[in-house]
Amino acid sequence: MIRFVCICMTVFLMGCGGSTKQTPKEDIINDSPKEELEEETKDEPIDEVPSIPIGAVSANFIANEIPFYAVVDRIDHNKKLTIIGFENKSIPKIKIPESYGATLSSLRFDEFDRDLLLITAKIKDTNFNKYYLYIYRDTSWHPVTNGFAIHRSHVTDTLTPIKVDPSNPNNMFRYYSVFDLDKTSELGYTWRLLSESIPIENK
Questions:
Q1: Stretch (H or E) spanning 137
Q2: Helix (H, G, I), strand (E, B) or coil at 15
Q3: 44-71 confidence digits (pLDDT tens)
Q4: Distance (Å) of CA 58 to CA 61, 69, 70, 75, 139
Q5: In angstroms, how far is CA 70 from the centroid of its own chain?
Q6: pLDDT tens across 105-144, in order?
Q7: pTM of the entire structure?
Q8: Alpha carbons within 13 A on the beta-carbon side of 26
Q9: Which SS3 state, helix, strand or coil, does residue 178 take?
Q10: Max Cα–Cα distance, the chain, nearest Å
Q11: Whole-angstrom Cα distance, residue 172 to residue 163?
């Protein structure tokens, strides 16, 4: 009888011990922060930064309107043509003849109510850059002056190829390079940087 009672108590105690087994505290502590972090990450808004294509330039080409970018859209080497496209597809493209690519920049002058687009075109003679300055008005691009070339030996970081003539706001002041015979040069010639003031064609 005593043996039976002892066996029953042993079985009872073993059963109680199994039912009171607890989950390790480490598991509880580690799970809570992970779940909270996941919830916080889901709730955080993702900021989308607008991007423009490589080599593009953004400016206020239309007065009092949101800026938009200009970019070299395509280079047709067979036709010797560089095509400039724009962020707004309704803006007409600019075709630069006798060119093999270009870099773009914008210029701003007090005499104009909007930014101007300066196109520095690569031409067949790689010793020169050819420049084109445009203004966008009445749904079309118009040349501010005709194109002009500058020898690359004359191009510096401080040289502004074209600007409004400070002595005559109706003219543009620009630089250009000319060929000149020079007996003191080993080649027998040199390129000289000259300047001129010419009337603004479109303003």
A1: strand 128-137
A2: helix
A3: 555 555 688 999 999 999 999 999 999 9
A4: 8, 4, 6, 20, 18
A5: 9
A6: 999 999 999 999 999 999 999 999 999 999 999 999 999 9
A7: 0.73
A8: 0
A9: strand
A10: 134
A11: 6
